[in-house]
Amino acid sequence: MSQVLEFAPPASPEPPACAAADAPDVSVVVPVFNEFDNLGDLVDRIHGALAPTGRRFELIVVDDGSRDGSGALLTRLVAERPWLRPVLLVRNYGQSSALQAGFDRVRGRYVVTLDGDLQNDPLDIPAMLDRLDTDPDVDMISGWRQQRQDKALSRRLPSVIANKLISATTGVHLHDYGCALKAYRRDIIDRIRLYGELHRFIPSLARDAGARIAEVPVRHHARTRGVSKYGIDRTFRVILDLVLIVFFMRYRQRPLHAFGALGLWLATPGAAILGWMGLLKLFGEDIGGRPLLMAGVMLLLMGVQLIVAGLIGELLIRIYHEGRGRPQYHAQEPDAR
User: Fold this and answer.
1) Cβ within 8 Å of residue 6, ≥6 positions away
2) pTM of the predicted structure, to 2 decimals
3) Domain limits, the chain
4) What confidence tier does 328 reach under pLDDT thresholds 50, 70, 90?
């Protein structure tokens, strides 16, 4: 579990920021890593975007073990900003863990996320919140950087490939999975957990949790300060994480169907080969040196092992749900009229 330091801001009557005892309307979560040069402007721009709306808000900035003084700057900024809630992770855990640390602390009815590099525009947030207010058929709004300002091919090309691959594989079709600017209803955030580097797949996890997703164009700015933390090497990690997310979405509740199906595909031809070898042996042929015999044995053993792995997975998923009281589904009760 991540170790964190939190700083509680002093109480203040200044509107529209929320007092400590009041639940805000909106919780904004921003993970940052070595963004010292951008933090001051980031905090002010988010305040400037939300203050005129009259919504009570809190800004949870999660410093993911920065080494450039970002954490110290946040502790200074909080002194005059009661709506700012810094969370300082004791080391760099990664963006998914930083986001989860923020999600664990949100109190608002709506949750908004964005990056800390000033490429997302906080002025897009009010329109996204208004959409959630007025459209009951939308639980999550994902930003789409139509006019993306990243010039480097090492960022644009992997993003295009990843968007098409993830959309085709998960069935959640979005133009821009990589846009950090997103808005959620609180109950969706409460249903999902982020591990590893699954922040890229939040829309897929949200859909699995029952979210109805809309995508809207948002503004995007070129990075002017700081250094990008992304490179082309993340493409390979996306592919591996995609295997995990597809398994999670399709077979989490029925692991036997995943492992067992593959096991049967291997065990069936293996058993057929061994049956054929057995018949040849009965008719007096020497089968001891045939490679086909070894192939049949290996296929049968691998198939049986996979089926057993599926059975163990079924036992584990039942222990997970029944032993710890975890629900197997999420439901909404209609309002009585």
Assistant:
1) 85, 86, 87, 88, 105
2) 0.77
3) 4-251, 255-323
4) low
